[in-house]
């Protein structure tokens, strides 16, 4: 197919470099420098999408980020699929493959149109609420249907092959937008020596100057752009970012810039290149020079392909050398759009008429058009477009002065393109991101940025300053001010920029073109193209009582598309305001949120994915565990050995073997991950007494003690053994997952409540490797590689600690036990860990030294009824609930943390949930953890639940299952039966018992 | 993303280095045992959640590990001042400097 709409010369495309691409399965040719949209228009493609609700054919309206229709699914392969790509922003490359997102099943066949005719009433405004809310069980079906039809696109089903980066930056001045205002702002800031970042979403800097016909200093504007870029490039501290959208403006002048590094090159980024980069920038000052979007006019059938924004038509002609039709009718409320008719005529095509809604237009461009003999119809409007897949005619009629009614006869003009301009809407989006409300400006007929607390300046179109001279002047001033505020000298004078002043007549405020029939009976007048919201729909919403614009938006779905209503919101607000007899500012403001345009998940994730998603922590013995077949479990960020299966073993086989060998001979656990906090200072002992529930005043040097830590509410949150290394020196251990929290807990109490105590905390978790040998042969094993510690059972007693050497490595050895067996916890400097561990195995072979992981550790401790904080506790249990009142010293003089809390009325009432042991009636049945306890399993659902199972295992040592769980009043119910109904309908019966299943006298650890 | 000045490090750092620990100036009662359940509940659970100026306790968690106070406007997210634990805020809502 030929590029029938491409003109012979002009524009910024390279006619020598043809590119082929595929749209909806069909091959086309475009040129280097095209966007997908300009290439499609060059090829005369009219229909690019089907609309969401009514399945109407839709064409390209705009030439930028505001495009609501030409939203494509892109990607040549499954892995490179990208949804919601705006054809107007995607640069063309050779081999590009794209498809309509919402043409279901294709844009030329009207499936939804039939549905709309059949289901008609279902598609009124509020249909989300009215239809899809009920029945709720159908929602998943509706959602599938809506997503498919609504143009939301789809994510790839295969892994993205590309890489994405993040970069963190600081800047004195960030300039957003590189049109005339942005470029002049960047120049003046850069000349002061400030560190400047200037970003623009387009492939080239220049903004409107890339298609402008104005001159700066007597030269074409595009030449000035090249000079400005060249000058900016001479400053070492200026970063220029084309193809980079500032998508978010966050608190404290933090901006996120989405740079598309390779999206314009190929389907997949070239080898060694990243696809996109997210800049996270902290700016001292920000200059918003984001320009303005042209507002389309709302008239009947204004969505027929061929209806376009006037400025977009100019852009396609002047920048891309594409005239998107043959015969143009231009409808405008302002002078500026006359340029489109002039450009069209210059391209050698026919301007059928300029329809100006104002009775007496006057201004330089109007005079120009008159001189050129263009047919101007004043005081009139295009009230309706005609045509199916392309405009073929428009109806024109005179309207009254305030644009509210049709006053004259309707005449018909033949044309294939209808360009419209309702004036401009400043792009205030970014200034809204920081919760600043935009302010209505009557004179400019639009919202401009409101008051803000950010270090933010604005220049050019965003201020509703549309003249080129004003844009340059405001940009220069803003750049100077920003640099000065950031501490730079801006006294050097800059060369003055001269432009010819163009006189412009006043624009007319017109948001809704009247029709000869009332709105509700006229053909559809679209406000939000992406969500098919019409003027009639908005009026209906206000009639149904939705008075706040936010409610109207939600009810009609206006502005909820991927385009965020960039084109339609202002028209929609104005229509709602008028229908409620209010002014626009009375109706409210419209607020935009990040992101300005869609950002890929890849850019958001950057390198924080796969292996780098979260840090991993390994003990010094990790290599040994891997080599010896350990399977690992995540505990916080730690990779802990879970169990060590031998070939042919089931998990239960392994656990049985590990549990038995430990109790029969000796087992070893890597306990390095336990949190370790070194505590020093003359008040360390006093401090411990305040944060633990039990007494610490008399703990002698060389002794260890178990402690419970509670919150001020009296509830247990962590536990561990703390040992006294010297009079003013302690080592606290915490749970593996709780270490960071406990350290901060200690710090906050020290720093905010008891700063008078002299005590210091430091984390030493990573400094030590900890290996626990446990079992009747542990002393014998230790004695073989430790000759400077007296291991005699009466000298080195239970809960003692000694310093010496193990395998010739300096070590701290604690005789503490989490298994109930004779146990030693050997701590050595972390980098000796693996060496000592291997020495233990060298000597341990004859004792069948068995490595065990967290699972066996859980079983062994449960056999003894030891709790695991965070598994058997959940923040709602105090020590007495756990049957651990022995660990609470109410006699301590200081009201330790938790003491007052656990004395609250609710904490001392009877019948609280308490931790007890559970013995199943069938000794082989293991109750699933989390099972709910009931007294009578035959009671009707919902049953009265008394608690749940917190820990449950099969104990090979005991030959039956064991469990711990919460039961209301459980400690007073020993011997009673409780029942655990299961999802499959079965019921497990258990008897409440002591949680200490093995060696209740505690003799095994005292041998 | 806040940009927070740590009064101990005397430097502005990114919010990622800090975290908030709730409302500031809630001293632990000196004699908890003399508190009624209601008073203890008040200390434990009740917080202001104002619209406007709020004094907050923050910690430079992955920096110096020190706690300090921030006076922050919960509407604009502006940080009005930072001050050390034990010091009094100089910006308070009664001064109407919002
Ligand atoms: Zn700090």
What does this structure look like?
- Chain A has 24 helices and 49 strands.
- Chain A is of the alpha+beta class.
- Chain A folds into seven domains: 14-150, Ubiquitin-like (UB roll); 163-292 and 427-485, FAD/NAD(P)-binding domain (3-Layer(bba) Sandwich), CATH 3.50.50; 296-422, FAD/NAD(P)-binding domain; 519-582, Orthogonal Bundle (Arc Repressor Mutant, subunit A), CATH 1.10.10; 622-673 and 767-860, Gyrase A, domain 2, CATH 3.30.1360.120; 675-763, Alpha-Beta Plaits (2-Layer Sandwich), CATH 3.30.70; 911-1007, Aminomethyltransferase beta-barrel domains (Elongation Factor Tu (Ef-tu), domain 3, Beta Barrel).
- In chain A, the strands form 13 sheets. In chain A, strands 8, 9, 12, 13, 14, 15 and 28 form a seven-stranded mixed β-sheet that branches. A six-stranded mixed β-sheet of chain A has the order 40-41-42-39-33-43. A six-stranded antiparallel β-sheet of chain A has the order 45-46-47-44-49-48.
- In chain A, α5 runs parallel beside α11.
- The longest helix of chain A has 18 residues, at 468-485.
- Chain A is elongated, with a radius of gyration of 38 Å.
- Helix content of chain B is 9%, strand content 34%.
- Chain B is globular and about 40 Å long.
- Chain B has one domain: 2-Layer Sandwich (Folate-binding fold).
- The two termini of chain B are 21 Å apart.
- In chain B, a hairpin with a 5-residue loop joins β5 (67-73) and β6.
- Chain B is mainly beta and 98 residues long.
- The chains are: A alpha+beta (1007), B mainly beta (98).
- The A-B interface holds A 250-254, 280, 282, 434-435, 453, 712-713, 744, 747-748, 751-753, 755, 895, 899-901, 904-905 and B 1-3, 14, 21, 27-28, 31-33, 35, 37, 40-41, 43-44, 57, 59, 61, 65-67, 75-79, 85-86.
- The structure holds zinc ion (ZN).
- Zinc ion binds at residues 6, 8-9, 60, 63-64, 66 of chain B.
